[in-house]
Design brief:
With 230 residues, the chain is mainly α. It is built from 8 helices and no strands. It has one domain. 34% of the residues are buried.
């Protein structure tokens, strides 16, 4: 028995959406995974300050290259590069270069705080003047979502970004290269920031459905979530 053309088309569309979701995750967190892998591979067997710094610099260089590669992947497979991704990639390259040039991990650790703060302030400023900047910055369109829904989503992400900025500063203060705990800060990007981001994104779905997002497109916010892997 042959498949109904509309059924086959639906399966193909679902497959494309699933692939796009995974590509978005890879674009956001792939560079961090490269950073962690190169850092771990370069770390000295016996902890010492010079070896630790070399490992961080090697990881930072790989992080920069992977970030640019992720940007190109987004353009190739998703057909777009959002303003948010352009901005975060530019800061990764800029602050990564400062880290390598000065030999100071401070720059690569402060970078997420700056990214989250800028995004948070921008989204909340837009909310207070009645503009849903998240829609512009993501270049996303969720089928059926009302302007009010976009405005609330922008506000909520703005607050969440500021929370991430504060959290990064707390972790940076306690876990850094001078006290020998840089790896703990790096791992936190996966075991703290990534789960929090997914939980937050899922928590927004009921509100989005209430404001017009179609149930069939309920996974779209997961595919088009703002980049938090910087």
């Amino acid at each position: 028995m042959k498949d109904n053309p509309s059924t086959s088309s639906g399966r193909t569309e679902e497959g494309k959406k699933a692939a796009s979701s995974w590509i978005s995750v890879a674009v956001d967190y792939g560079p961090l995974l490269v950073f962690l892998g190169v850092y771990r591979w370069s770390a000295p067997a016996k902890p010492n300050a010079a070896g630790e710094l070399d490992a961080i610099i090697n990881g930072t260089g790989a992080f920069m290259i992977a970030a640019v590669a992720a940007l190109l992947l987004s353009k190739w497979r998703l057909g777009k590069v959002s303003p948010m991704l352009w901005f975060s990639t530019a800061l990764i390259v800029g602050f990564g270069s400062l880290t390598i040039f000065f030999g100071k991990p401070f720059f690569v650790q402060i970078k997420p705080t700056i990214i989250y703060s800028v995004f948070g302030i921008a989204l909340l400023s837009g909310f207070f003047i009645g503009r849903a900047l998240l829609k512009v910055l993501l270049e996303a369109a969720f089928e059926g979502l009302s302007d009010k829904g976009w405005l609330k989503l922008s506000r909520n992400w703005g607050v969440f970004f500021l929370f991430l900025a504060i959290l990064n500063e707390v972790l940076r203060y306690f876990y850094n290269e001078p006290n020998g705990n840089f790896a703990t800060w790096l791992w936190a990007k996966f075991w703290v920031f990534l789960p929090l981001t997914f939980l937050f994104t899922f928590s927004q779905i009921p509100m989005l459905l209430k404001h017009g997002l179609s149930f069939e497109d309920k996974d779209e916010p997961l595919k088009d979530e703002p980049p938090t892997g910087g």
